[in-house]
Amino acid sequence: MTSKPRALAGRRVLLVEDDYFIAVDLKSGFEEGGAQVLGPVASVGEALALIAGTAEIDAAVLDINLQDELVYPVADALHARGVPFLFATGYDPVAVPSLHGAVALCQKPIDPQTVARALFG
Q: How far apart are CA 47 and CA 53, in angstroms?
């Protein structure tokens, strides 16, 4: 038996993921932990529009490869706003640009509790 990821309670978490089943699973896990999920969105354009239109974002989970489109412009926008985020991916850490080299990277499949610990301690 696992405990609920209480660190997510009351947090607004942006979810950028292009795999429907992974997105639904993560959204459900985050909501069970009490988070409000922004998205999920499956493209860089959708994510940037959501960021531009949302005043408060506590954290974000970003899939690196969105149908052959890399998520780094979204990472740049979050970094500019001071929003903590992590990458959820199967990519090797060396594939991440140096600007985001210190960003946590969770290998898929990821667990909402792991995300909560990585983002909120």
A: 10
User: Cβ neighbours of residue 52 under 8 Å, at least 6 residues apart?
Assistant: none
- pTM attached to this predicted model: 0.89
Amino acid at 79: H
pLDDT in tens, 6-55: 788 999 999 999 999 999 999 999 999 899 999 999 999 999 999 999 99
- Of the candidates 79, 23, 19, the one whose C-alpha atom is nearest the C-alpha of residue 48 is 79
Question: CA nearest 8: which of 29, 38, 39?
Answer: 29
- What gap in Å lies between CA 33 and CA 120, rounded to an integer? 13
Q: Using omega within 30 degrees of 0 as the cis cutoff, is the peptide bond preceding 109 cis?
A: yes
